[in-house]
Write a structure and sequence with these properties.
Elements: E1 2-6, E2 17-22, E3 29-30, E4 35-40, E5 45-49, E6 54-59, E7 66-67, E8 72-78, H1 103-110, H2 113-119, H3 123-132, H4 150-157, H5 188-191, E9 199-202, E10 205-208, H6 217-232, E11 235-243, H7 245-262, H8 269-282, E12 288-291, E13 294-297, E14 303-305, E15 307-309, E16 312-314, E17 317-318, H9 326-342, E18 355-359, E19 378-382, E20 386-392, E21 395-409, H10 415-430, H11 433-437
Parallel strand pairs: 14-18, 18-19
Antiparallel strand pairs: 1-8, 2-4, 2-7, 3-6, 4-5, 6-8, 9-10, 11-21, 12-13, 14-17, 15-16, 19-21, 20-21
Helix pairs in contact: 3-4, 8-9, 8-10
């Protein structure tokens, strides 16, 4: 019995998706609920599981195709034995023009081993390989059981790694074309695509090359949202600095008992989330948004926590943070970060939010001006904690200091409110008892 594999029903906010990559080829055996193909939307990557066990009979659409809900992707012959059906070529995928490949490289790309190499790719490595059109069978994996990591692919592109594992078999000899001219040597270097901005030596001169790679759906959506925010909101940024001595003392004093009791480490983000909640309660305009000529004051506190992934920046949303404990906040953030980087987070978890916190300090940023996550009206930027000399009661002491920044929509948030919001956050962090006593 032949069963159709269709695009699942996409959320209302998503019109279509892009077919990223197939994990199976025609003729391969598949198990029920096994992931067959990845679909990329503006926000997340969706997995399409096999509706039944059998053999993948036919693939209707190739990588890079734009698809909509209910569209047929492939056919499965239910209950068929492996190898019953031949493995026809996958449908051609739309791709930007590229330099002609050598005969040896084309043959390598069509080799059955390509499917086996892809199976050992980490998600990050797979993304880099696809964007740079790397034949992954030529990349030597340094991970466990030969797994290819992102760094393996990057090193290969930069020419820091041999084209194949030393144990790889030598290529078959090629026959010379008519006329007696020798065939081009099928060296590993000839098979490898030129790295981005590579310098290729041709005789006495050097030719500089570029590689054009289409934006991913997520990257294009991020670009659109950032430009939209800059064009439609009157953005301004105010700054302050926070002495984190008290927070560090609390974390040092209770970190072991906290982790033992709750199974999660006591980080900085829960303190900042709680401090922001106290400030949002006092200044509701910072938690509001603009809809036409109306200001919508949200009477709940859904915080977006920016997470950096290999695909780009995404913002999972913690709902009703005012009702969560420190431990629940830390657990939720850790869970979101793990699933965001694994690509298993849902669109619903990325939708909404009344205020956002982003932490550039984890990358070493000392000061920055974050962009508001529209249609929200404000975003708090955390930065690197750095020991600096400060004056405390007429004495110069060294304290762990952090600059904080609030970018806000000046259409509905006045400078006075923005500054006092930051002062409230500063007071709560420098004296954490305020968050417990709500003073």
């Amino acid at each position: 019995m032949t069963i159709e594999v269709r695009v699942p029903q996409l959320p209302e906010s998503v019109a279509d998706a892009t077919l990223v990559s197939w994990h199976k080829r025609p003729g391969d055996a598949v198990a029920r609920d096994e992931n067959l193909v990845d679909l990329e939307t503006d926000k997340v990557v969706l997995e399409v599981p096999a509706p039944a066990a059998g053999v993948l009979k036919d693939i209707k659409l190739g990588d890079g195709t734009t698809v909509t809900s209910g569209q047929v992707l492939a056919l499965i012959e239910e209950g068929a034995a492996t190898g019953v059906h031949p493995a026809p070529a996958l449908p051609a995928a739309p791709a930007p023009p590229a330099a002609p490949a050598t005969a040896g490289a084309a043959a390598s790309a069509r080799a059955p081993g390509a499917a086996g190499g892809a199976a050992k790719l980490s998600p990050a490595a797979k993304r880099v390989a696809e964007e740079n059109r790397v034949d992954t069978t030529s990349v030597h994996g340094s991970g466990r059981d030969g797994r290819v990591s992102k760094s393996d692919v990057v090193n290969y592109l930069q020419g820091k790694e041999p084209a194949a594992s030393p144990a790889a078999p030598a290529p078959a000899p090629q026959t010379a074309p008519a006329g007696g001219a020798p065939a081009a040597a099928a060296s590993p270097a000839a098979k490898a695509p030129a790295p981005m901005h590579a310098a290729v030596a041709l005789g006495a001169r050097t030719v500089r090359t570029d590689q054009r790679v289409p934006m991913t759906r997520l990257r294009a959506r991020i670009a659109e949202r950032m430009v939209q925010a800059q064009a439609t909101q009157a953005l301004l940024t105010s700054f302050n600095e926070v002495d984190l001595q008290a927070v560090n003392a609390l974390r040092s004093r209770y970190k072991e008992s906290f982790e033992k009791q709750h199974g999660v480490k006591l980080g900085y983000m829960s303190f900042f989330a709680k401090a922001c909640i106290e400030a949002l309660k006092r200044f509701p305009a910072v938690n509001a948004s603009v809809e036409g000529n109306d200001i919508v004051y949200h009477e709940y506190f859904d915080l977006g926590i920016a997470v950096s992934t290999d695909r780009g920046l995404i913002v999972p949303v913690l709902r009703d943070v005012d009702q969560l404990s420190f431990a629940e906040i830390e657990k939720s953030i850790g869970n979101f970060a793990e699933r965001a980087r694994a690509g298993t987070i849902t669109i619903e978890e990325l939708t909404g939010g009344t205020f956002t916190i982003t932490n550039g300090g984890v990358f070493g940023s000392l000061l920055s001006t974050p962009i508001v996550n529209s249609p929200q009206s404000a975003i708090l930027g955390m930065h690197k904690i750095q020991d600096r000399p400060v004056a405390i009661e007429s004495q110069v002491v060294v304290r762990p200091m952090m600059y904080i920044a609030l970018t806000y929509d000046h259409r509905i948030i006045d400078g006075r409110e923005a500054v006092q919001f930051l002062v409230t956050v500063k007071q709560c962090l420098e004296d954490p008892a305020r968050m417990v006593l709500a003073v």
